[in-house]
Design brief:
There is one protein chain. This protein is an alpha/beta fold and 403 residues long. The protein has two domains: 13-208, P-loop containing nucleotide triphosphate hydrolases (Rossmann fold, 3-Layer(aba) Sandwich); 227-390, Nucleotidyltransferase, domain 5. Helix content is 32%, strand content 20%. It has 14 helices and 16 strands. It has helices spanning 13-19, 36-50, 63-68, 70-81, 132-141, 163-168, 190-199, 202-208, 227-230, 278-288, 311-317, 331-343, 353-361, 378-390, and strands at 25-30, 56-60, 85-88, 93-96, 101-107, 121-125, 151-156, 175-180, 242-247, 253-260, 265-273, 293-295, 321-323, 347-349, 364-365, 368-369. It has an eight-stranded mixed sheet, sandwiched between helices. A six-stranded mixed sheet has the order 13-12-9-10-11-14. A two-stranded antiparallel ribbon has the order 15-16. α11 (311-317) links the parallel β12 (293-295) and β13. α2 (36-50) packs across α4 (70-81) and α12 (331-343) packs across α14 (378-390). It is elongated, with a radius of gyration of 23 Å. The two termini are 19 Å apart. The relative contact order is 0.13.
């Protein structure tokens, strides 16, 4: 087996404290950008080394999120250090050739798939947005009789007061808890930290910056919106460009027209139609605004099985300049972008009663926007796609210097 040693001198204080825990359950709770994913990925490599050749599993909330976080981080660490490995995308696992180590990646949204063979260790990324069944499966599977060191570690931002919160407060099990703040990460630009502080509400700062448990799953999504402040007519709109923000649906197909100023927008017209397709919406909007930028979600770039063109291609064929990200932002980031603009006084609206109802009535449910009423959320989603593209809450990853 190749020699392997962790150089911990560049660990952040909370990373170092968490790494040195001697408990079976090791929990790191931190804000965005506090180095949770990096230290978790590094821990999984270390555990694959000391337990080789016996496998462990690192579970993400979904396969897609795993590809964007854990897989990228593992590859970055392994490539930078010259460790020989193979990543099997079909099986979603890493084989580290230097010491015959195995890191299996699991998906928490398919908890039944986590059942099966014995593990020497397990890690759960973002446990506070996953079901308790994921945790139960992992502790049941960490049982390999030949493991050198068995442990279960959890790394995440506190999103809900759920089983993770209850677990973190238990004193009857062998558990260690460390909390880390985004502001403690010296590798992050100050601009990024200040952007987070200005983007989030006080409760969100407690959770997303300082890693404190706060109930963010109830109450209004856009709680900074106040119709007395934000519904208004403006007289400074002459010669400003008009933009369209769109959410693709059949019921209800939704779009907004807004004037775009220097750092602000004013929404003045809404489109909300039932049982129509993208061609219908394109024709309707084109009659009012034949040539303008259109902001929408990334999924519009995919063709449907029943259509020869994607939504983006259809809108372009009608003369719209489509602006969309390669991947949709996390819902919380999109909402934070909208709330930041509202809170800063750079958002106003008129003649859009359904958008106003969205902004006043949308609520959180189980960590996501409650979409049980099909009449709601689509216009505010369209608003979020536009605002997040134009005025994003930017996230920069931590420079990896911890070996």
């Amino acid at each position: 087996m190749s020699q392997f040693k962790i150089q911990s001198k560049n660990f952040l204080p909370h990373q170092s404290q968490w790494w040195d825990l001697q408990t079976f359950y090791k929990v790191l709770i931190g804000g965005y950008g506090s180095g949770k994913t990096y230290i978790g990925a590094l821990r999984s490599i270390y555990l694959s080394y000391i337990n080789a050749p016996h496998p462990g599993m690192y579970v993400s909330p979904s396969h897609g999120l795993s590809q964007r976080t854990i897989v990228i981080t593992l590859k970055e660490i392994l490539n930078r250090t010259g460790i020989d490995y193979t990543y099997n995308q079909m099986k979603n696992d890493f084989h580290i050739h230097n010491w015959d180590g195995h890191i299996w990646l699991g998906s928490g949204d398919k908890a039944d798939s986590l059942k099966g063979s014995n593990l020497s260790w397990a890690g759960i990324d973002e446990p506070f947005i996953q079901k308790k069944e994921v945790f139960d499966q992992m502790i049941a599977r960490v049982r390999h009789p030949e493991a050198s060191h068995m442990e279960v570690f959890l790394t995440g931002t506190p999103e809900q007061l759920n089983w993770g919160y209850e677990l973190s407060n238990r004193i009857d099990i062998d558990i260690g808890i460390v909390i880390g703040s985004t502001l403690e990460n010296i590798h992050l630009p100050e601009e990024y930290k200040q952007n987070l502080l200005s983007a989030y509400s006080d409760d969100e700062i407690k959770a997303y910056v300082h890693g404190q448990f706060v109930n963010l799953t109830q109450g209004r999504v856009y709680k900074d919106f106040d119709r007395n402040k934000h519904i208004s007519k403006r007289s400074d709109l002459k010669d400003l460009p008009v933009i369209i923000m769109q959410d693709y649906n059949v019921d209800y197909a939704s779009a907004l027209a807004a004037y775009l100023g220097n750092g602000w927008i004013h929404v003045f017209k809404e489109y909300r139609l039932s049982n129509v397709n993208t061609y219908d919406m394109a024709e309707i909007i084109k009659k009012d605004f034949p040539d303008c930028d259109l902001f929408c979600d990334a999924s519009g770039n995919s063709r449907k099985s029943s259509a020869t063109q994607s939504d983006h291609e259809i809108m372009r064929s009608f003369g719209f300049k489509v602006k969309a990200p390669r991947r949709n932002p996390a819902v919380r980031d999109r909402v934070a972008s909208v709330n930041k603009l509202i809170r800063s006084g750079n958002f106003s609206v008129e003649n859009c009663p359904n958008l106003v109802m969205d902004l006043e009535q949308n609520t959180w449910r189980l960590g996501d926007i409650d979409k049980r009423d099909i009449k709601q959320t689509h216009l505010s989603d369209a608003l979020g796609y536009g605002i997040n593209y134009l005025f994003p809450i930017r996230k920069k990853t931590m420079a990896s210097k911890s070996w």
